Task: structure prediction
Amino acid sequence: MNKTIITVVGKDTVGIIAKVCTYLAENQVNILDISQTIVDGFFNMMMVVDANQSAKEHSQLAEELERLGEEIGVRIRCQKEEIFDRMHRL
Result:
């Protein structure tokens, strides 16, 4: 399985989840787990996804998600699970 961690952070607005999920669905990326919170007007979402069925390479998905984030006013970061794990190891 090609697990990827996607984080979305920014000022809360209508449609953030819908736009990110629509992009993922259009690119055959399956959401395995999702968590989101809103604290004092700031939106934070973390997703674990499986990009195995996507025709796009990880780097292309990451670039397109970053651009999508810019369009909707949030920061979207996309990292492979193994890199995320190494960065967040204690």
